[in-house]
């Protein structure tokens, strides 16, 4: 058994990428959140969609998100090799050549955009293409290595999927879909800056100008707290615009207050050890926070469909 395992490792490092390496390129954990928020955007859109067409649309959005991840890993393979949390990705670990990842990402991009346009409408297909372009070119190639505002502006790419889902149903964009975009857009900076606070050594070594490395920890903590307040307010927009019920409103209020409280604790952390520990807590909570908000919207949809509300 040991001999077989060793030989597989040697062949993999000699350039034989395995299926799991291609799956890793898709960033499946990120993809799962993208798919979920896109699905919610699709479900809360008016008029509804044929379930089979809806399934195709979700698969296309998932593939498009995976394509973005593959192209991101292709371009960032040099800094991925430096940072501890990314060193085992397929390219820096030596299990895949860069041109393989590039070809894989381009093929998936073209396939997902074309199929989504043909299956639903070209507003959705075009918006998916723009989302991939924004993430790969605007964020990865331009902003990420040039400005501490990289994650603020570039975060728009991660906020587009609910709008793509909405457009797949309606063929248009709306204030309701923009509200879903704004929630994710305002969530992105505190989420990633919390990560950067306890991983700033990695970003510094890789030369990525994340906010803590450029503006300092104190300024970053103040900005995280400010964004948490803006996010809590924006999370109430679905109620204000009338496409969610009291169920979502209560969840948004409680979750938003909890996030603000955690970010206030981070702001007031008395020393670097406490700051890093609280930053990790904020980062972990932020993952569940976004999921819970969109889950509440999903529950609203089910409750209205079942006539409970």
Automatic annotation (TrEMBL):
Pathway the protein acts in: Porphyrin-containing compound metabolism; heme O biosynthesis; heme O from protoheme: step 1/1
Protein name stated in the entry: Protoheme IX farnesyltransferase
GO molecular function: protoheme IX farnesyltransferase activity
Keyword Flavoprotein: no
Gene3D superfamilies: UbiA prenyltransferase (1.10.357.140)
Organism expressing this protein natively: Devosia lucknowensis
GO cellular component: plasma membrane
Principal subcellular localization: membrane
